[in-house]
Amino acid sequence: MSVRIRRLTPAFAGEVSGVDTTRALPPGMAEDLDAGMAEHGVLVFPGQALTDEQQAAFSQNFGSLEMPSAVSNITKEHERRLGPAMADVSNLTKEHRPFDREDRRRMFNLGNRLWHSDSSFRAVPAKYSLLSGRILPSSGGNTEFADMAGAYDALDAAMKARIEDLVCEHSLLYSRGRLGFEGLTDEERANFRPVRQALVRVHPANGRKSLYLSAHAGRIVGWPVPEGRLLLEELTEHATQRRFVYAHEWRVNDLVIWDNRRTMHRARPFDDVNEVRDMRRTTVAGEEMTTAQAA
Ligand code: OGA
Ligand code: MN
Prior knowledge:
Elements: E1 4-7, E2 14-17, H1 29-40, E3 42-45, H2 52-59, E4 87-88, H3 104-109, E5 128-135, E6 143-147, H4 148-153, H5 157-163, E7 167-170, H6 172-178, H7 186-191, E8 195-198, E9 200-202, E10 209-211, E11 217-220, H8 225-239, E12 245-248, E13 255-259, E14 263-267, E15 278-283
Parallel strand pairs: 2-3
Antiparallel strand pairs: 1-2, 3-13, 4-15, 5-13, 5-15, 6-12, 6-14, 7-8, 7-11, 9-10
The structure holds N-oxalylglycine and manganese (II) ion.
């Protein structure tokens, strides 16, 4: 069967049919999907009843897996509900109960409701994220995506020139600090040391430029902090206008893949203290840094 992709918005995001992600792909299909990702930035695959093992295997069609670790979360090894390749994006304890309202893992995970690009706080940030919707709440809990290539194109020439060579510092300290999350241990702070990322990225597959923004971005290198934050706020406001956004309403067993190099995303609210939302993510590692790191 061949891959078919139906556009979900005029500018980006598509829905795929003709692919069974639970099984090994026929020859050439991974390349077709990669080309689809370069064009659309977000691909939705309905009706994929995946096990964690199948999700990890399918993900590896696009590169090596990025493993969740202490650099990316505050969840302790013994608290983990899922295997080592899975990022647990649910609201659940190991015992499959929603986190208490005051649970610091819940408060930390609330950071996913801010617009971000996955693992932009790593020196080599993620390529694709693959999110599988296993159990959904009765309402709310959409995921929204913003097209950062479309947003870049829509900037005026003066702004494009102004930002062309800017470099930002990204860290979980910045994204969690925005929400007033406090009480990180010295060890967690050390794990979350900032990295540098170019503000304008060029897509390796098609040469398109995009804004590389994220809630993790907290400084523009060489600029006074408030001035840098203001520009990042202004660009984020621009890039997340509804005309650049696709809102995904989840159906059970949707698999959604996004290109973190070309999109931002955020989770939308639901009654997470009382309802279950079991979402599991695998992440395909990026291949390169976007800029040199500080010594
Ligand atoms: C993620 C993420 C958003 C959501 O998986 O990286 O940010 O809607 N998820 O759960
Ligand atoms: Mn995310």
